[in-house]
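Re-run requested by the PI after the first attempt was lost when the workstation crashed. Everything re-entered from the original request form. Ligand of interest: flavin-adenine dinucleotide.
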Amino acid sequence: MGTFSPATDVDLTSLNTLRLPARARYFARIETEQALQDALAWARKHGQQALVIGGGSNLVLCGDISGLVLHMAIMGRSWEVCGDGDAILTLGAGEDWHRVVMYACRAGYRGIENLALIPGTVGAAPVQNIGAYGAELKDTLVELRAWDAQQQAVVTLSGETCGFGYRDSVFKQHLDRYIILSVRLKLSRQRPFNLSYRELAEHFDNDTASYRSLTPLQVAEAVKAIRRRKLPDPDHLPNAGSFFKNPLVPWDTYQALKTAHPSLVAYEGEGEAKLAAAWLIDQCGWKGHREAHVGVHNKQALVLINHGNGTGPELMDLANRIRSDVEARFGVTLEMEPRRVP
Ligand SMILES: Cc1cc2nc3c(=O)[nH]c(=O)nc-3n(C[C@H](O)[C@H](O)[C@H](O)COP(=O)(O)OP(=O)(O)OC[C@H]3O[C@@H](n4cnc5c(N)ncnc54)[C@H](O)[C@@H]3O)c2cc1C
């Protein structure tokens, strides 16, 4: 601990994909587990709260951070072949998620190809159980190692004990209790691709017979092409992806809404339905809305944009007005997907 000395008054603008201005009172880039222990010991000694960030792609920075920001950069990739064409890929929390997806696909392994081009780090992926195109991290996560601030120890959690749900996990339910250090994914050379998502099936001309000859890399490239058409690149138009979760409502509520609004877009589940938040927002006239510094993307109403010089409070103000409109019109409450700090 004697050697740990954080940087002070660090600008976080380039470390969050919404490019919101904020400063960290103390800051350190963490490359090893020992460095993390040293940093946490320093924080305890100096009475500072620690906030772990990865790629900053699911954060809304609403002001300066008064404690210690730890930028996770623990790297590492290793394979364990299990037989039957399966393998376990162990990854350091600081690895870039999309690069890992492409790396696994190039090696011929299946399981995470639908999750290509999701920004951020491996360590943040379990926090909201990242998902896209009918796949979720939980489908492949076997276990992970994390620092547990409650037990003051490194613990191993199996996939079943991570409390995964739609954009949810124990890590989201108990923010800042766990710092994820590494993740183990079970991948396969044989498992069938999940091409049930309409746009993905259409990309391959709905030709199910041809699916057998596809490679994971071809599926990942298809996902990349679809995403690039739909979602703005944060490097050109700063954003945090979907700003709201798709609300889950009981079946009765869904039926009543569908009767009142026959064009309602929803994904039907057992006893409940997931409403398309983008449709609800679009119906309230927000798609393409632009204010001085912030706005709503003109192709995807779920994505809020910083047009430059926008601040966290400005963005939150816009988000709150969108929520109020959706609530007044449909009686449905939108829940924010990114984490707001402080
Ligand atoms: C253009 C765009 C598209 C997106 N598309 C999708 C999508 O399709 N599906 C999807 O699910 N998400 C999507 N996202 C959201 C985002 O990419 C994911 O949530 C991603 O996992 C965030 O990773 P990050 O490293 O940037 O996390 P950060 O934004 O840095 O942090 C997010 C949260 O995780 C915590 N955290 C970070 N690292 C750790 C760690 N090692 N241990 C414990 N907690 C940690 C932070 O404290 C914070 O609470 C998108 C975002 C953008 C900008």
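Saved to the shared folder this time. DSSP finds eight helices and 19 strands in the chain.
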